[in-house]
């Protein structure tokens, strides 16, 4: 039951797909990167490394690698590395980051190399030549790659996690559908008939983050998706994500991600 609910509510949105030839210039700038979308890497040649969740992952051919959204990470390439990558949002139950909440694997050994390479080639081709049919195909191919990180056996507490999430679905859905509006703690609490203080404490216990901070992260997540589009206008993004002006948007963006919206646009495509 738990697994069927997770996958029936799973939402994926691809932000970019590419193949990148990395050099020693592929590295963070001395501090962790924190993006609200997930990253998937598949190395064809060479090697690099990423560090997250207090673990170092050596990026080498034959493996897929997943970095969940909102996860601080470091990365570098000491020489040369040829890799495919996807930037995508992965949500379940209206807004929860599925890989983190349900303890998906962050590394997956690939046994059929040619098959996965063909999947990546097809995905990249669909992404480069977008139309309604190719967009649907790209989503299916990305999910096929993503499935490699899903544990074969459900986690010990998965049923309980799903039960908790079901209670907060109205809150997640409201945030998702009213992001451009003013949203208060009192309003969110009223959606599931709780007092604000109790709601805030319960939300924190369940998700490890206060509800208003979660709201801010979702606003930035939406903004980042919009920034990846070449014709993005900061004023429009600020308005559609619920910020009162561009200054407030830029300040909040840098506080959460560690970089300005301008620098995000310049550097995000090749990380």
Total count of strands: 9
Evaluate the radius of gyration.
19 Å
The description of the largest β-sheet is: 6 strands, antiparallel
Could you tell me how far the N terminus lies from the C terminus, measured between alpha carbons in angstroms? 37 Å
CATH domain topology of the largest domain = Jelly Rolls
Helix and strand pattern:
HEEEEEEEEHEHHHHHHHHH
In the CATH hierarchy, the architecture of the largest domain is: Sandwich
Walkthrough of the structure:
There is one protein chain. The protein has 271 residues and is an alpha+beta fold. The protein folds into 2 domains: 2-149, Sandwich (Jelly Rolls); 178-270, Arc Repressor Mutant, subunit A (Orthogonal Bundle). It has 11 helices and 9 strands. It has helices at residues 2-8, 98-101, 113-128, 132-146, 158-177, 185-191, 196-207, 211-227, 234-240, 246-257, 261-267, and strands at 11-22, 38-46, 48-52, 55-59, 63-67, 74-76, 81-92, 96-97, 107-109. The radius of gyration is 19 Å and the shape is globular. The model has no long low-confidence stretch (mean pLDDT 90).
């Amino acid at each position: 039951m738990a697994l069927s609910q997770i996958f029936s509510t799973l939402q994926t949105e691809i932000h970019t797909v590419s193949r990148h030839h990395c050099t020693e210039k592929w590295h963070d700038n001395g501090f962790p990167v924190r993006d609200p979308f997930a990253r998937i890497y598949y190395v064809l040649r060479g090697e690099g490394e990423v560090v997250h969740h207090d673990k170092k992952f050596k990026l080498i051919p034959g493996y897929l690698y997943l970095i969940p959204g909102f996860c601080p990470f470091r990365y570098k390439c000491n020489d040369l590395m040829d890799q495919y990558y996807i930037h995508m949002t992965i949500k379940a139950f209206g807004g929860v980051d599925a890989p983190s909440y349900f303890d998906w694997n962050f590394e997956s050994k690939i046994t059929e190399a040619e098959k996965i390479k063909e999947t990546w080639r097809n995905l990249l081709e669909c992404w480069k030549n977008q139309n309604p049919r190719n967009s649907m195909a790209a989503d299916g191919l990305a999910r096929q790659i993503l499935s490699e990180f899903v544990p074969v056996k459900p986690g010990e507490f998965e049923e309980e996690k799903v039960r908790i999430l079901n209670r907060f679905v109205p809150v997640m859905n409201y945030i998702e559908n009213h992001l451009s509006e003013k949203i208060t703690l009192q309003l969110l609490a009223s959606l599931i008939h709780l007092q604000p203080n109790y709601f805030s404490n319960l939300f924190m216990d369940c998700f490890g983050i206060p509800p208003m901070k979660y709201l801010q992260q979702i606003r930035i997540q939406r903004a980042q998706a919009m920034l990846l589009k070449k014709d993005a206008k900061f004023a429009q993004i600020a308005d559609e994500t619920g910020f009162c002006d561009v200054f407030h948007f830029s300040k909040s963006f840098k506080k959460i991600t560690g970089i300005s919206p301008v620098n995000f646009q310049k550097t995000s495509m090749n990380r």
